Amino acid sequence: MEYRLLGRSGLKVSALSFGAATFGGGTEFFRAWGETQVDEARRMIDLCIDAGVNLFDTANGYSDGLAEEILGKALHGKRNQVLISTKSFFPVGPGPNDVGSSRLHILEQVDASLRRLGTDRIDIYHMHGFDALTPVEETLDTLNSLVHAGKIRYIACSNFSGWHLMKSLAASDRHGWTRYVAHQVYYSLLGREYEWELMPLALDQGVGALIWSPLGWGRLTGKLRRGQPLPKVSRLHKTADSGPPVNDEHLFRVVDAIDVVAKETGKTVPQIALNWLLQRPSVSSAIVGARNEEQLKQNLQAEGWNLTAGQVARLDAASATTPVYPYWWQRAVKHRNPPPV
């Protein structure tokens, strides 16, 4: 397994990391993803560790905290071998302060996550979304104090706009606080908007990308084909409307191109899609999940080899879309504003 620096920090993370959103199935939404319980979670974690994976990602809101509990129990005795990433932001109760990135909410949720995970520290702690009602200074001062207290090691954000992230980084620099070293983002062959602004910002400011849903919200599993119905077993039956929108023609154009490369390489559709991501600038790790051990084994084989330049170019061409303004305009003057890819 390749290990990469997480942004401009000294922390090394595995190129593939494991996402525990499939653990628990504690709500109807997350049951569509999976219902992995402790015993199977232990086996999956052992498979990951044997493959060299050192980063395990979860969130306080996954199955109302059950995913954190299962991850903590499954990691018992192995805590010092791995890194744990978790998050807060989304509502955890009916109260007016049970949501967001206020000092009160962050402090409560860090302690709650530590209890559920059964650990004394969180290696990477994310703001799961941007809270426009809380000053960034309040959020960052709180996170900085938690780093100095030893409860968290590194801070990160997720699903921020470019100006959200840059405003936060500037505030940290101004006050000498801990900076966001990573940004957990959606990025896949089906959704390349990350490249328009967030990737150039990441490269300029040293923020590593941790990729969620690298298989396009389950659409790049190899099971979706032009002219064929959705498979009977697919989380898309229940979650398609809550994920990133994808035009059917775009989806099948990308899948057709992946199929060509898959035949050339002898790899699967998910392995091709994941390997393409691992060759993109700023990507520190792609977070893979799995309903079962066989899926996990297949996904872990996406690392350790590289697509050729020609194969990457074919996939780039098939997945390209016209960017919105001002990015299409900026590409017209790329001699002074070169794109990162």
Strand proportion, as a percent range, falls in 5-15%
- Could you please say which CATH topology applies here? TIM Barrel
Count of DSSP H/I helices: 13
Which regions contain 5 or more consecutive residues with pLDDT less than 50?
Answer: none
Q: What CATH architecture do you see?
A: Alpha-Beta Barrel
Shape: globular
Adjacency order of strands in the biggest sheet: 3-4-5-6-7-8-9-10
Q: Any idea of the CATH class? A: Alpha Beta
What's the mean pLDDT score? 94
The name of the CATH superfamily reads NADP-dependent oxidoreductase domain
- Total number of strands: 10
Number of domains: 1
Q: Report the biggest beta sheet as strand number plus sense, adding barrel if it closes.
A: 8 strands, parallel, barrel
**Rg over alpha carbons:** 20 Å
Instruction: Estimate percent helicity.
Output: 25-40%
**Class inferred from helices and paired strands:** alpha/beta
Element-by-element helix/strand order: EEEHHEHEHEHEHEHEHHHEHHH
What does the model show?
- By secondary structure, the protein is of the alpha/beta class.
- It has a single domain (3-331), classed as NADP-dependent oxidoreductase domain (TIM Barrel).
- It is 39% helix and 15% strand.
- The chain is built from 13 helices and 10 strands.
- It has helices at 28-31, 38-51, 66-74, 103-117, 136-149, 162-175, 198-205, 236-239, 248-265, 269-278, 293-300, 309-319, 327-331, and strands spanning 3-5, 12-14, 16-19, 55-57, 83-88, 122-127, 152-158, 180-186, 208-212, 283-288.
- The strands form 2 sheets. Strands 3-4-5-6-7-8-9-10 form an 8-stranded parallel β-barrel, surrounded by 6 helices.
- A hairpin with a 6-residue loop joins β1 (3-5) and β2.
- α2 crosses α3 (66-74).
- The longest helix is centred in the C-terminal third of the chain and has 18 residues, at 248-265.
- The two termini are 24 Å apart.
- The mean pLDDT is 94.
